[in-house]
Specification:
Blueprint: H1 4-12, H2 18-25, E1 30-32, E2 37-39, H3 42-46, E3 52-53, H4 59-71, E4 77-80, H5 84-99, E5 121-124, E6 129-132, E7 143-148, H6 154-166, E8 170-174, H7 182-186, H8 189-194, E9 197-202, H9 208-215, E10 220-224, H10 236-243, E11 250-252, H11 258-269
Parallel strand pairs: 3-4, 7-8, 7-9, 9-10, 10-11
Antiparallel strand pairs: 1-2, 4-6, 5-6
Helix pairs in contact: 1-2, 4-5, 6-11
Length: 272
């Protein structure tokens, strides 16, 4: 199934009839799968297709959603928060569907067979992300800078960086540049000042966001992480520090929410 924009372009070029266009548009804006309702019109409203949140879903459910997305014209698919064990099971089940094999219990079902060439599977353990079909090609000039205070913040940063890359953005990574050694951050001043959007990621006291916010002329999205000792309260201290930032232009997402920061950053970076 083709994307709506592609359908309209083909109609404009005279390659398909008005009846075929109407038939496609009559399809429901979602696919009711029983356990999930796939939003097939989300890209029309928000500019990006639906993304699968993998935590709490079984591998069978994830594969069923992936196949439904492929059948409805979604070429690039992102699944977040997937551990290595579940990722391996997802890959195994996808391979079974590609070859036409059926699971013994019939737990994975799809209305159409998906050709092997249609499924390119990648798993990134550092970010706990599954990507099917590769990243969306970069389609904007600016870049997103992803900065971490420490090495321990990198898992959240990689979720943010790889999500941003998946959504068609160029990303510059600046890792382990926290305020405990401010010269490490200042060494990247040109990259910070030239970024279109910055994602600042820190645990402990979360001071990085305020410092970066005072250096940059672009929006800064702060991500508190659950990194830190007892009084950090699993990221609550960093969250409150970031919410109370004295630097203008700093917004804050939830604790460890690298995906949410990347999605927001991508929307900003794609604005004309």
């Amino acid at each position: 199934m083709k994307d709506i924009k592609e359908i309209l372009l083909e109609y404009k070029a005279g390659n398909i009839s008005e009846e075929e266009v109407l038939l496609y548009l009559k399809r429901a804006p979602f696919v009711d799968m029983g356990f999930a309702k796939l939003d097939t019109h989300r890209s029309l409203r928000q500019g990006a297709h639906e993304i699968i949140y993998g935590a709490g879903k079984t591998a069978e459910q994830i594969v069923s959603i992936i196949l439904a997305m492929l059948e409805n014209g979604q070429e690039h698919i992102l699944v977040t928060r997937v551990d290595e064990e579940k990722a391996a099971e997802v890959e195994k089940l996808l391979k079974l569907r590609k070859t036409g094999a059926d699971e013994a219990d019939g737990s994975v079902k799809t209305g159409e067979r998906i050709a092997e060439a249609d499924i390119k599977y990648s798993y990134f353990s550092d970010a706990r992300l599954v990507i099917v079909g590769g990243n969306i090609p970069v389609d904007c000039e600016g870049y997103i800078a992803v900065i971490t205070a420490g090495t321990s913040d990198i898992p959240v940063a990689e979720e943010a960086a790889r999500t941003a890359e998946f959504l068609g953005n160029s990303v510059v990574r600046i890792y382990d540049a926290g305020v405990a050694g401010l010269h490490r951050l200042l060494d990247h001043l040109d990259e910070i000042m030239s970024a279109r959007v910055i994602i600042a990621i820190a645990g402990m006291e979360g001071a990085l966001a305020s410092v970066v916010g005072g250096l940059a002329s672009c929006p800064v999205i702060a991500v508190p992480t659950s990194v830190g000792y007892g009084a950090s309260f699993e990221g609550l201290s960093a969250l409150l520090s970031m919410l109370n930032s004295c630097a203008s232009g700093v917004s804050v997402v939830n604790i460890d929410n690298g995906f949410g920061a990347a999605y927001q950053a991508s929307m900003i970076n794609h604005m004309k």
